[in-house]
Amino acid sequence: MWTTIEQIFPYAIMFTIPLLITALGGLFSERSGVVNIGLEGLMVMGSFIGALTISKLQTAWPQHMVGAIWIGLLVALAAGVLFSLLHAFASVHLSANQVISGTAINMIAGAITVFLSRNITGSGNIRLTNGFQSFDVPWLSDIPILGPLLFTKTYWTTWLILAVVLISAWVLKKTPFGLRLRACGEYPQAAEAAGVNVRRMRYIGVMISGAFASLGGAILLVTIAGEFTGTVAGLGFLSLAALIFGQWRPLGILAATLFFGFASTVANVSQVIPALQDIPPIILKLFPYVITLIALVIFSKSSQAPKAAGEVFDSGKR
Amino acid sequence: MRNLIISLCAVLFGLIGGGVLMAVTGHDPFEGYKFLFQGGLKNSQRLGDTLATGTPLIFTGLSVAFAFRTGLFNIGAAGQMLFGGFCATVIGLNVDTSRPLLLLMMIVAALLGGAVWAFIPGLLKARFNVHEVVSTIMMNWIAYWTIYYAVPAYLKAESVETESRLLPDKATLKSTFLSDMFGGSYINMGLYVAVIAVIIIAFIINKTTLGYELKAVGYNRHSAEYAGIKVNRSIITSMLISGALAGLGGMAQFAGNGANIQIGVLPTQGYDGIAVALLGANSPLGVLISALFFGLLYSGRGFMNAMTDIPPEIADSIIAIIIYFAATSVLMDRLITRIVNRRRAATGGAGTSGPVSGKENA
Fold first, then answer.
1. Res B348: pLDDT
2. Nearest residue, CB atoms, A312 vs list B145, B321, B360
3. pTM for the full model?
4. Contact residues, A window 205-264, toward B, CB-based 8 Å cutoff
5. Whether the Cβ atoms of residue B272 and residue B57 lie closer than 8 Å to each other
């Protein structure tokens, strides 16, 4: 049993990270008052741009395999910011229905990435020959119990993203910027009266979500998938679920994504692990979605959702 | 009228956007569009294929549009379609009776399957005020994984792991009469059902008390409640009908255009239904026309891909761009208002500006 847990843990954490950063992006967007169901599409975009950049760079400079990956992640992040501007422009300046605009983002990403991929590489898939290699953290991995669970087979991106989560929690909670951003999602008219530029804050919120979700897609690519295939198989929507399940709080999201990460990993490996063979895999696969529905019902009375999320900002409304 | 202009503008921008994409990637857009439209219209067989490709889109478009009218955003047409199609397939593979009865049973199964799948988000919305967008997305993935495990377990094909057994011919909507008329196309009786559905839905929305109540809830939930309309019941009814339509779409896809159900895919027609509804301005006739237009893009792309080296995903890209412009219709609305006002001012309308439209998307 213990070896099973030891085996599962690193994979579960690896699987959690793309969800975590994407959901965190969604948090910034929704806290600023813009619902972003385009997370899925933004992840696809990140996965595509990342795969394209990395595969081109790795062929050009075979001696800098790892450096190429980091550059790929950065380029994916920048592309996510640019792509999310479409959503920001529609929802902030054009008063579009944010859900429809987000759906459009998903559809555009799914179609155009494969279209471009076929044009550039001749195939709808881009395979990476070299992804990130996992490593054991020196010293810490020797700690009994915790070492094998948390500090073996880890990736640099994991530690980076965990740092980003903590910083985000601090920024949202403690800084003037975070307070203003949250005010725009709760009561934008009051925020405006207090001198906050609501439109600009919402643009920033959506752009951060674009950056993070796209990075999430790229991390998924370099740690787990190893290949761009034109889809991220609903992980963007799962991140959205984690955002709700975590009740729009950074640490809540961390807990929710860990939970989903474990559920998915257990579902993926349940067939080869004797202790889990008796659980039908369908139950494990359905688990995150069903639990989110239940959470929605339980929290329906006391939901922490930003009050103005999804609403068009009308500065004359009181 | 204004809706029509906005939709046409969105289509125009979508086509221009697609043309730019083709040009940027080094293809000739005019040649691309020529083959794209030829591929969907060139002869009777291709025309039949276009109609057939559009058929499931009519259902999902109607589904989304109907829920929209009640102010609900049913983003779960894909899941409802999958589950409705699955229910129909279960009946088709396991029941052996005369063809009309069998098809009728399958249609009922598809209706019920889709309705059940939409009932849960409807109930959660009415009873607990859970936002239907999130719950229908969850239901989509629940459907995806349910089908993923249920099909191999109960309906597995002999050799292929990822799809169900083929339905016998009598358990599909195939019609030799229609196929012969359209030169061997895979057009099928799903189209009849779709047209009937369009007529029934148009009747419900425009001519019945039920439709009136649902629309009233969509316009203003609180005033509808004040007027004595049972809002919660309307929400559930609307979702049930919407889901049933999507379920029928599943049957049209899996037991009409195809003859079995595959696992590991959420049918794209679910999300395309949103585009169809939006472009058709949520009216049944508009849905019919825009679904057939999208069917044209989808069925013509194969021919275009064969004649040029433009990837077939251009059709999806065009549709995606259209939905973006339809979503940002406020932009065009403002533009139209400005033009109308300017024209009025120019023709000497003594300072009376037209009604300034503050149209917000519902």
1. 60
2. B360
3. 0.89
4. 234, 237-238, 240-241, 244
5. yes
